[in-house]
Amino acid sequence: MVVTGAADPPRSRRFLRLIALERITRGVLLVVAGVYLLFHLISDFGRLADRAIRAIELDPRRPFLHRIVAYLHHLHASELRIAAIFALGYGALELVEGTGLWLDQLWAEYLTVIATSLLLPFEVYELVRRPSFWKAGGIVVNVAIVVYLAYLLRRRVREREQVEPRP
Question: Is the pTM of this model over 0.85?
């Protein structure tokens, strides 16, 4: 017997839907970014960034902004292609996770726990290398998602064991 989301209280399904929306949104943005990069491999992203910075009335000569623009000027098509492929792959994974969570599929909870847990060490490394509020916030959100989903999965396993005792 497979225990589905119907056994979960409405509150946990609301949180699952919220996580699903976050994953779907991130997935769509990554896929769009990946497609954009693939079709604009010869673009000068430094020039585009310079125009965008000036459009919002910032000074592109400020050291931080200047480093970003200079870096973007020197991107090669091969680097953009790799970034596009990673964005498309990760976006697809996020869309699969989000769709599965929205449909209250048990496999999606496992996939989300595993995929998110595997990326946490890289996120912590990046936070240590270059600390920022946003990186710390992202880690907190991802840890909360992993802990919450692990709790739901453990609860489902216990409920299943109560329904189907082991021989």
Answer: no
